[in-house]
Amino acid sequence: GQSLEQPSEVTAVEGAIVQINCTYQTSGFYGLSWYQQHDGGAPTFLSYNGLDGLEETGRFSSFLSRSDSYGYLLLQELQMKDSASYFCAVRAPMNRDDKIIFGKGTRLHILP
Amino acid sequence: DTAVSQTPKYLVTQMGNDKSIKCEQNLGHDTMYWYKQDSKKFLKIMFSYNNKELIINETVPNRFSPKSPDKAHLNLHINSLELGDSAVYFCASSQRLVNEQFFGPGTRLTVL
Questions:
Q1: Rounded to an integer, what distance in angstroms lies between the CA atom of residue B36 and that of residue B44?
Q2: A36-39 long-range contacts, Cβ below 8 Å, gap at least 24?
Q3: How far is A65 from chain B (nearest CA, A)?
Q4: How many CB atoms lie within 10 A of CB B110?
Q5: C-alpha angle with apex B13: B9 to B18, nearest 5 degrees?
Q6: Confidence of residue A85 (pLDDT cuts 50, 70, 90)
């Protein structure tokens, strides 16, 4: 089967750093994406890792280790507006194309 | 200049009815998707269309049928609605083999 595991909830303090982990088990793998979704809103793309290592985009960074089937999203200098759900998503081969498989999401609570 | 739009935003209907949700993207993407997000926020892909060809058809009931009149539109028709169909349905689009998906605002379907 194919599965992605990420914590259901994480709580952190404003201004701090938080890491959201994702482990995956899929038949085939192209890369790992992260999406942010605020309550009542649509998922929005944050980052993609196709190769091992760290990708940095402003306050957000994403890491991938293909050998460990593991990745994480790192959020620095947390702001209240970062309170949202964060989904990891694997891009994997499917028939003659590819598909995106989403994890169940991590709800990030930020305390003032 | 909306990128991915869906109508209606809210849909309340009785069990057994047939309804459609429309989706349009003006990004020039060649792949469009339908996702279902249930009350637990689990985001599951239902269909994917690439150049008017169905390339992914997850194990969804055949009461659900995607229809794509052209590559900018992917509509979702649902027959004989059931209580369990209540969810938020998201349309998304991407350029084939590009990792970022752009999501529409979602349609909240409530079946009474």
A1: 5
A2: A36/A84, A36/A85, A36/A86, A36/A87, A37/A84, A37/A85, A37/A86, A37/A87, A37/A105, A37/B41, A38/A83, A38/A84, A38/A85, A39/A84
A3: 18
A4: 13
A5: 95
A6: very high
Whole-number percent of chain A with pLDDT over 70: 96
Residues of A in contact with B98 (CB under 8 A): none
Q: Which residues of B touch A31 (CB under 8 A)?
A: 99
Residue B106 has pLDDT above 70, yes or no: yes
Top residue of B6, B23, B41 to mutate, by most chain A CBs within 10 Å, is B41
Average pLDDT, chain B: 91
- Name chain A contacts of B42, Cβ cutoff 8 Å: 102, 104-105
pLDDT at A104 over 70: yes
Q: At CA B23, angle to CA B98 and CA B80, rounded to 5?
A: 120
